[in-house]
Design brief:
4 domains, ten-stranded mixed beta sheet
């Protein structure tokens, strides 16, 4: 008997230890969540902040509206019985039960459940609960658990990007007479999704006038990989062409591009191409990227991704610049960018053909007002090994090339410019 009690306490202790660790190991980002939007009469299931499924629902009628706010699933029942609050009878599970065959409570008297009136889905007809088609609620019931967050919101403008990269906008009726929407509201929703300027005002005015009550696809988004690394920027396809947010791309590559607002052109290393400005974002046609950056491009259909192999200079594996110059049969890197990455100060006068560091000098070529140094010379002045990798289109630099004591060159009173 004593052995049995000891064994029981060990099992309880292990359970108390394991359960919290498992919950913590999952992490908040891995938890599912539900978002119900009342004007669109939809329920969205999120995982890792991405919509994995959308379901049509019925919501409360204006006289008994579905409450908005943040909730959690506090109860789950299979084959629930219905207890009408103003009646003296109950309805057991079965075809006459308006709760259907699944119930997920989110607050006292309110829940997500099935229905024996599938015709009501998409309407505002319930007493405040959220109804789903029976096959949908049974599917959802198996995926979520107690304490799953449930957000009920009232948003008449929905801008969304689905798992296929389709960008869509929907304007929905004011089912409870709570929210007036304006052109500024619609544009604000597009800007928040980084999609501003992709729909002209005439079309937006049509949406505001007609309130289509559905999502309308207006652009296709594609992913970008640069030298094998997935980037946060996205290609936008509209009017039959793919466009890249070129300034964001240049920033990530530490490359310099000039934008001429008047001529709507982009200039980089004596190459000029046309650009397109939408909202505050400047795009370039994907077909013009090689003219600006060189390199190669490959379309990966399985990942909905344009893979770009672009010339960049890396120091110990980190990109320091995408501004690479061709000098004769060799390549050159921006000398000031290299010095900055090393934490060095160099002596160079604007326009001069010489650059000096710790008493050592090197010939530079000036382009765009900046000095460029041949990769064969970087070792002489920066103590770097530099090798061109044609497969990855990368100048790979490592430091140091050889051990050296620079203290003999340091002069605390030396002026740099």
């Amino acid at each position: 008997m004593r052995v049995g009690k000891w064994f029981l306490w060990v099992i309880i202790g292990l359970l108390m230890y394991v359960v919290p660790v498992s919950a913590e190991a999952m992490g908040q980002d891995e938890l599912l969540k539900i978002v119900v939007n009342l004007p669109s009469r939809t329920l969205e299931l999120y995982q890792d902040e991405k919509v994995v499924k959308e379901y049509p629902v019925a919501i409360g009628k204006p006289s008994t509206p579905t409450p908005t706010g943040n909730f959690t699933i506090i109860d789950k029942e299979v084959n629930p019985w219905w207890y009408p609050s103003d009646k003296d009878y109950v309805v057991p599970s079965g075809p006459e039960n308006p709760l259907g065959y699944r119930w997920m409570g989110i607050a006292p008297l309110y829940g997500i459940h099935g229905t024996n009136a599938p015709w009501s889905i998409g309407l505002a007809v319930s007493n405040g609960c959220i109804r789903m088609r029976e096959e949908d609620v049974e599917e959802l019931f198996e995926q979520v658990d107690y304490d799953t967050p449930v957000k009920v919101e009232y948003e008449r403008v929905k801008v969304r990007i689905d798992v296929k990269g389709q960008a869509s906008i929907g304007l929905y009726p004011d089912v409870y007479g709570r929210q007036r929407i304006t052109m500024a509201d619609v544009k604000g929703a597009l800007a928040e999704a980084d999609l501003a300027g992709l729909i002209d005002d005439v079309f937006l005015q049509t949406l505001l006038r007609e309130i289509p009550d559905r999502q309308i696809v207006f652009a296709q988004l594609h992913n970008i990989k640069i030298n094998g690394e997935r980037r946060p920027e996205r290609i936008v396809a509209w009017q039959g062409k793919k466009y890249v947010p070129v300034m964001a791309l240049a920033d990530s590559l530490k490359a310099h591009i000039d934008w001429d607002e008047n001529s709507r052109t982009l200039l980089r290393q004596n190459q000029t191409v046309s650009g397109v400005k939408r909202g505050n974002t400047i795009y370039v046609a994907a077909q013009d990227l090689p003219a600006l950056f060189g390199g190669r491009e490959v379309w990966n259909d399985s990942e909905n991704c344009l893979e770009l192999i672009l010339p960049v200079a890396k120091l110990d594996g980190q990109i320091i610049s995408g501004d690479i110059q061709q000098i004769g049969e060799t390549l050159a890197v921006p000398a000031l960018a290299v010095a900055k990455a090393l934490g060095e100060r160099v002596k160079w006068r604007p326009g001069a053909a010489k650059l000096v560091l710790h008493g050592h000098s090197a010939t530079v070529r000036v382009a765009g007002g900046q000095p460029f140094i041949d990769i064969n010379d970087v070792g002489k002045i920066f103590n770097l090994a530099a090798v061109w990798n044609d497969r990855t289109q990368t100048i790979e630099m490592t430091y140091p090339l050889y051990p050296i004591d620079y203290s003999m060159y340091l002069d605390p009173d030396e002026e740099f410019f």
